[in-house]
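DOMAIN: structural biology
WANTED: fold as tokens
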Amino acid sequence: MTRFLAFFGTLALDMAAGVRRGVEESDRHVLLLVRALIWLVRPPFRFREIVRQFDFVGVQSVPLICITGAFTGMVLALQGDFALRKFGGESLVGAGVALSLTRELGPVIGALMVVARAGSAFAAEIGTMRNTEQIDALASMAVDPIQYLVVPRILAATISLPLLAILFEFSGMIGAYVIATKHIGIDAGAFMAGVREWVWTEDITHGLIKSVVFGLILSLVSCCKGFFVTGGARGVGLATTRAVVLSSLLILASDYMMTELMFQPSS
């Protein structure tokens, strides 16, 4: 009986400690976001650093996004034809692919690719600067570390993600069009007619809103994990892993919540 009570006592203490750590992490993210928003409208503005981060997050992600989007569109065309052919709806393959890309896969997969590529780099770079006391050196030179390190990354990710999502969707539609018309044999006119009939402006704009939120999430989480890193080189590795995992989970969770709000079925 004593061992039984000791086990559940230890379990309860571990759960309480986990809740406490979660609350502390949430506080850190909120405070970092508030300070970043304040510095966003206060001079001096680090235009050179902002442009450098735009290049890293946006421009250098273009090949990855194009390749991923093209193969995603190809797979959607194949799977869509396999499912719709059973009901004689091959002409709706284009509409199905376009809706899937604009509403969900463009923003979500594009964000996950950027998390893996840029988010991990944010956490590792800032974490290394924390361990080597470069962040303390910035503060000693009257340079606010959040303004110099965090704000450009948040700004670059938040603006770049919608543009990358559009590129992902465009590449996906090209891949789907080629597979549908050249490989499957669907009429090109029917493919495009389905897209024009079923894809509305709201589908595209709602997907872009999702991308803005995803960009904010991944940049904030990655910068926060790096900014408060401890434990030397091992701590940087753990912070990078946790940044990618937490960013991915929050992206998927927020995607569900925004989908629930944006795409309510009409009664």
Observations:
- Residues 145-184 form the longest helix (40 residues).
- The chain has a mean pLDDT of 86.
- The chain has one domain: 22-259.
